[in-house]
């Protein structure tokens, strides 16, 4: 591994000025494009700084990276592993007037993933399948396929007036209008391509029948019916027991008297 790192450093030094240098008059030799490896050291070396170099740093996607200070004219940065997370544009910046910069490009094939691996839709509704890519460089070409067994059939934008594809560098969306219960369910594959290769992801589409949307409602109806039946049966079984109870001195009339009395009281109070 040490030898590999050394090789990267040496080739970086040999293939000077491959990374674009755009300081006024400054010459920066930067590591050429990196596409794979572990513990890769990328570096920049400035030779004709316009003014004294006060310091230097690295930046990626607007974030400053921690680096070790060595000499003012040389700076390096360690990439533990080249993958979709570490891919991107690394800028080395020398603090001269004006600033002197160079870029090291770390490029990988697209890292494509499904926003949701399984998508559910109701019959007749619009289904939306989304794939994204989180790597550098951006995807230049997106395509969609229908996976049937071992065969991938291309999904053509606008076909059947139901299939529509919308893509940009990071993201692609396949919209399927008025989902069909039998024809549309299945696996769909999105395929992203950039200069380094391709990546893909598969999304399963499930389509529920319109009736299925009714199931929760029917469930509640069934539940209510069961409850009503239970209460009905319970009441029916209780009534014969209550008949002998009524014999012991007319509790019901007493109760009704009590309520009548209360009623009167209330009515009187209201009248006052
Ligand atoms: C920087 O580049 C110069 C000229 O290309 C070379 O002589 C020098 O050895 C390099 N320094 C480092 C630390 O790579
Ligand atoms: C800085 O150098 C130390 C010791 O040489 C090393 O352990 C550390 O990983 C280096 N850090 C970076 C960001 O290169
Ligand atoms: C698909 O077609 C629609 C119009 O029908 C268009 O707006 C869209 O950009 C097309 N998508 C692709 C990826 O070409
Ligand atoms: C890709 O996504 C990043 C943020 O995740 C954004 O900054 C960048 O502009 C996007 N690129 C494109 C081509 O849409
Ligand atoms: C993905 O698309 C590229 C061209 O854009 C093609 O070469 C490649 O075979 C496709 N991959 C799959 C799995 O269909």
UniProtKB/TrEMBL annotation:
GO CC terms, sorted: axon; basolateral plasma membrane; endoplasmic reticulum membrane
UniProt keywords, alphabetically: Cell membrane, Disulfide bond, Endoplasmic reticulum, Glycoprotein, Immunoglobulin domain, Membrane, Receptor, Signal, Transmembrane, Transmembrane helix
Signal peptide residue numbers: 1-23
Region of interest: Disordered: 241-272
Organism for this UniProt entry: Podarcis lilfordi (Lilford's wall lizard)
Gene Ontology biological process terms from the UniProt entry: axon guidance; dendrite self-avoidance; homophilic cell adhesion via plasma membrane adhesion molecules
Superkingdom field: Eukaryota
Protein name (database record): Basigin
GO molecular function annotation: cell-cell adhesion mediator activity
Keyword Transmembrane tagged: yes
InterPro entries: Ig-like_dom (IPR007110), Ig-like_dom_sf (IPR036179), Ig-like_fold (IPR013783), Ig_sub (IPR003599), Immunoglobulin_dom (IPR013151)
Ig-like domain span: 26-105, 110-208
Transmembrane segments annotated in the record for this chain: 213-234
SUPFAM superfamilies: Immunoglobulin (SSF48726)
Gene3D superfamilies according to UniProt: Immunoglobulins
Annotated localization: Basolateral cell membrane; Endoplasmic reticulum membrane
Recorded topology in the membrane: Single-pass type I membrane protein
UniProt-listed SMART domains: IG
């Amino acid at each position: 591994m040490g030898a590999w790192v050394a090789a990267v450093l040496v080739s970086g030094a040999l293939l000077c000025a491959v990374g674009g240098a755009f300081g006024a008059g400054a010459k920066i030799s930067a590591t050429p494009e990196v596409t794979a490896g572990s513990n890769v050291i990328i570096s920049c070396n400035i030779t004709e700084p316009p003014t004294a170099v006060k310091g230097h740093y690295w930046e990626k996607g607007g974030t400053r990276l921690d680096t070790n200070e060595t000499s003012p004219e040389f700076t390096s940065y360690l990439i533990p592993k080249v993958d979709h997370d570490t891919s991107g544009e690394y800028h080395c910046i020398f603090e001269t007037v004006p600033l002197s910069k160079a870029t090291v490009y770390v490029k990988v094939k697209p890292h494509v993933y499904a926003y949701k691996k399984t998508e559910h839709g109701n019959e007749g509704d619009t289904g939306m399948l989304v794939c994204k890519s989180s790597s550098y460089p951006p995807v230049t070409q997106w395509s969609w396929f229908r996976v049937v067994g071992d065969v991938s059939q291309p999904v053509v934008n606008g076909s059947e007036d139901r299939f529509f594809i919308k893509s940009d560098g990071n993201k692609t969306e396949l919209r399927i209008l008025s989902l069909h219960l039998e024809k549309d369910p299945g696996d769909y594959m999105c395929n992203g391509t950039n200069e380094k290769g391709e990546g893909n992801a598969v999304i399963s589409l499930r389509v529920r029948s319109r009736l299925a949307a009714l199931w929760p409602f029917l469930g509640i109806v069934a539940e209510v019916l069961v409850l009503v039946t239970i209460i009905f049966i319970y009441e029916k079984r209780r009534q014969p027991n209550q008949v002998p109870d009524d014999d012991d001195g007319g509790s019901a009339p007493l109760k009704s008297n009590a309520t009548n009395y209360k009623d009167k009281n209330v009515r009187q109070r209201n009248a006052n």
